Amino acid sequence: MSGTLQGPTLQGPLQGRRAIITGGAQGIGAAIARRLARDGAVVAVLDLDGVKAAAVLGAPHCGFACDVADTASVDAAFALAHEALGGIDILVNNAGIGSAPGDGMAEYYAGQADPDGHADQTIHCLDEGWSRVLAVTLDGTFRCSRAAVRVMAQQGSGGAIVNIASTAAVAGNGPVPYCTAKAGIIGMTRAMARELAPRGIRVNAVHPGATETPIYAPLPQDVKDAVAADSVMKRLAHPDEIAGAVAFLAGPDASFATGSTVTVNGGSWFI
Q: Residue 106, exposed/middle/buried by CB under 10 A (0-12, 13-18, 19+)?
């Protein structure tokens, strides 16, 4: 797909804005893409699966394959998106993984199931497992931010970056590499917010709690119920509820928000 896309006819707070969503083919990413499009933005969806990415939204939107763990893939995908959209005003860094082969989670779950054992991850986590989670979740967020900022700086008209972090970054309730990566995203958000403010580029983050996504779909209902019980609202979030927070941070109503984190977790920290 090439050429400059015409903006959607729908009037909304993001009318005329050009947005890129990573990891946007399903779950929270797809919900964000649909919400920003509904609010008037023209959207490029990036995902490992380019076919699924392109199918999330119809014209005038677009989708491209992108492996955020690979710099060449990121740069190529952003070049295509830039050409198609005619510019970049908004980036949502949603792509990430929670676990990878060799990260010790298999041994952790085995220890949980053994009443005489220990739920250990750290002592079983291999370099490749650790590195893969950070390469996608943390390094990928940096690579995509760098690609977007290069365009935004050249445009000279500011922009907005929204990073998807996680309540796990603060609560520590998840795999060690994942919690580390998401905590790193918060540090990156704050550092870039300071750096990029003179350019009119705002950088914020969202802390989603447990959300009803394809990752949760195969889990037994009793496991879902246990996770839901950790919030005062006694349920999982819907992806659209996370997308609403992203739309706020990406839009004009958040014009004085930068370096901040919006938590959408149903009050799970109150328990």
A: middle
Per-residue pLDDT tens over the stretch 91-131: 999 999 999 999 998 888 888 888 888 988 999 999 999 99
Residues with catalytic roles: 178
With vertex at residue 162, the alpha carbon angle to CA 257 and CA 78, rounded to the nearest 5 degrees, is 135
* Strand, helix or coil for residue 265: coil
- Give the Cα separation of 96 and 68 in Å (integer): 9
DSSP H helices, 60-208, are 71-85, 105-113, 127-137, 139-155, 168-171, 176-196
- Residue 35's nearest CA partner among 158, 232, 206 is 206
Residue extents of the structural domains in the chain: 18-102+134-262
d(CA 184, CA 165): 9
Which of 151, 101, 110, 109 has its CA nearest to residue 130? 101
Q: In CATH, what number does 18-102+134-262 get? A: 3.40.50.720
